[in-house]
Amino acid sequence: MNTEVLQIGGIDVEIVHKKIKNLHIGCYPPEGRVRVAAPSHMGTDAIRLAILTKMSWIKRKQNQFIRQERQSPRRFVSGETHSLFGRHLRLEVQEWEKKTYRISRQSADRLLFSVPAGSEAQQLHLWMNRWLKSVLREYAEPRVVFWADRMGVKPTKWGIRPMKTKWGSCNPEKGTVWLNTELAKKPERTIDYVVVHELAHLVSPKHDEKFIRVLDRELPEWRSLRRELNDSQLAAWVD
Fold first, then answer.
1. How far is it, in rounded angstroms, from Cα 137 to Cα 82?
2. pLDDT of residue 1
3. Cα distance between residue 122 and residue 143, in whole Å
4. Confidence (pTM)
């Protein structure tokens, strides 16, 4: 796999050459980074022309990301608002004498974060992400089983991990499916959309008519769910 960065139409474009048949252009949050997956045999001039023909779409997506509301960086202090499955919860941080942490729902709108005294924000961030991953897994596991059985597919493995540019991913050749940890903050209905979307790639690897038919059959409202998810508040990414 060969990667290069070219400036095309006044923007930097990351180009990755792969053993694929068709060129794919992606524009990703939070700042509209442009990444192109191109067939190994495709020359620079052909790639440049393809990108220029999509430039209006790229600019439109970048402007959309710029205008989109973002979370302020989390400091993990009492009174801060955190999201769980689309619900806004008020965080209460409580120091205790134990050397471990605990996160628990205290009411419909309150989240208690018990931490060792003197814990730094970076450590609290890691603990919160670990907890979000666990609650997302608890919700998603039966949904993956349900949808896989309904759709007649058998993923060999599924998991949860942080992603900066996708809500989910699927490797059809290996049969693996991944969900973005950030989905723990989104409404359950949008998580189901991502699960169905990725499992549909085990039916058809590409976003072709066969793939669309699967989504239309299994989740007729998938377009509105996709729009809801993509229009939702972006995380304040920290590298």
1. 18
2. 62
3. 32
4. 0.73
Q: Using CA atoms, how far apart are residues 212 and 85, in angstroms rounded to an integer?
A: 26
- Cα dihedral: 224, 227, 228, 232 (round 10): 180
**What are the boundaries of each domain within the chain?**
2-67, 81-230
Phi then psi for residue 53, to 5 deg, are -70, -20
Q: 1 is written with which tokens?
A: 């796999």
The pLDDT tens digits for 182-193 are 999 999 999 999
pLDDT (mean) for 60-78: 75
**Cβ burial, residue 166 (10 Å; 0-12/13-18/19+):** middle
Exposed, middle or buried: residue 92 (CB in 10 Å: 0-12, 13-18, 19+)? middle
In the predicted structure, residue 72 carries a pLDDT above the cut 70: no
Question: Can you read off the two tokens belonging to residue 190?
Answer: 């949008």
Closest to 160 measured CA to CA, from 173, 177, 145 = 177
* Chain segment 88-143, per-residue pLDDT in tens: 999 999 999 999 999 999 888 999 999 999 999 899 999 999 999 999 999 999 99
Q: Residue type for 17, please? A: H
Superfamily assignment of 81-230 in CATH? Metalloproteases ("zincins"), catalytic domain (3.30.2010.10)
